[in-house]
Amino acid sequence: MPSPSVPLDLAVGGLARSALAWLPASTGGAALVLDLHGSGFDAARHVAVTGTPAWVDEHTAVVVAPTAAVPLQFKGVRQPGFAWSIPGVPLFGVPPGTATREVDDTAYLTALVEHAHREWGTDADRVFALGWSGGARLLSHWAGQEGCPVTRVVCVSGVRTPPAPPRAGLLALHGARDQINPWHGLDQPRWAESVPTAAQAWADGLGAKSVVRQASPADEVTTWHAADDSVVARLHRLAGVGHAWPGTADAQQRQLFGEAGSVRATDVAADFLFA
């Protein structure tokens, strides 16, 4: 992992926000990657699992890992954590209607992108974002907002239908045995629709014209294509996998969220983003 990281502190909406950034030797024209943690975590713990700072050298990318602002700590976990603020979406483990801190996280993400372009000269045509769990849910919301600058999105264990047709291509990976965000959805506002429904809606919004499904013992892949046969969206259903980051060996992830399987989400994401 490249070292050291660079602290990136911004004030957005009157609130001080923090992130970690990893920079290649030359940032001009580099791809920009935002890597969003899940609920109850933070930037440092998240990238220790995903390993995305390695993309700095492997793919000449600027990698930025922001931290959310709403405090949220899992029961039995010593480290304090944070959650993203998603309009209309209750937090995991927090009863619906519970007041939470007013935070505009999509404005924060947009400010990070603008900062990277301004300060480091990153490529406006290669603005990528990936998120796990709550981070994926926030990205799904952001992608449907007018003017969202992201061109490709990876949603791990958290894809949702954007509020309006997105312009960003989608890669989604989701465990078939996810108990936090179940594949078939839940009868509650936090996770009402199924994963296939959300992915299909995203593909429809991108104008998909055809679909291909392929299956192996570990991974069922659904790919949506445009009229020119380019890929607009792809969904991986991971057999036997829970809510953990797919392919991780991290002990805490496996303890909290179940099996991670053999498909490495970080590698699949890199192939999609940097193709």
From TrEMBL:
Organism: Knoellia koreensis
Classification lineage: Bacteria, Bacillati, Actinomycetota, Actinomycetes, Micrococcales
Coiled-coil region(s): none
Keywords per UniProt: Hydrolase, Signal
Keyword tRNA-binding: no
Gene3D superfamilies membership: alpha/beta hydrolase (3.40.50.1820)
Highest taxon, organism lineage: Bacteria
Keyword flag Nucleus: no
Name of the protein this chain belongs to: Polyhydroxybutyrate depolymerase
One annotated GO molecular function: hydrolase activity
SUPFAM superfamilies from the UniProt entry: alpha/beta-Hydrolases (SSF53474)
